[in-house]
Amino acid sequence: METLISYKNSYSDFKQSYQVQLEHAKGQLKYGIRYGENYRLPLDEKKVVFYLSNNDQRMECLLKVMEAFVKFNLDQEYTIKVIFGAKLDKNLIPKAFQKYIEHPSDAEAQEDLATAKYLLSGESLPKYFVRKEGQNVIRFFDEFHKEENNRLELAQNKLSWLINSTFVFTEDAKSAEYLSDNPYFMELQGKVEQFSENIIRSKEEIIDHILNRKIEDVKSDKEHILIFVSAWKDEELEERYLRLI
Length: 245
Hints:
This protein is of the alpha/beta class. Helices cover 42% and strands 15% of the residues. Residues 148-156, 217-234 and 237-245 have low confidence and may be disordered.
């Protein structure tokens, strides 16, 4: 009985502390909490979210896709949302899409990220974002390759963004080859392609080749983990992962 009372007291203290943290949460933590509150909501099969962060200063490929959406009146068939970084100039995107802009801090933005069937984004995604089953996350990269000092152009959060992706388009062939062949990105095998304007020539091609892109068979999750870990050549880390899987 004493153990049960102690447990209840500990849980009560934890719950109170957690509620205080929620009330004072700011920035990404606050947005992540909102996102989590919406995570179990069903996907809206007709919702398309374009996510553009402040890092997306160059977004030629994604901009071409947005212009094609306007050209073929896809905003009449889908619910369009544009989550737009505060430091970006809204005139970068088609005027017809400016009315759909939401700020990343808006509560509606976190709900849309959790409920959109289709999410088209540039360089960045929120750190709290986790792709749901059945959600199509299509990424558009301008360039992605090794830096001059041979260091991987990859922060830890960028890896999670890529793993969260259903398919990746790159602006140049070099980036597509780098992501397809590098052992760090085995998760992306069969899911990387150089962007071509041929896939936005018609409404049907946009729907088939971007929104509902068919993905080639890839290796199992366990094999992904092993390959990723072995790429780091860290025996201790590999042993830990082996125990987990």
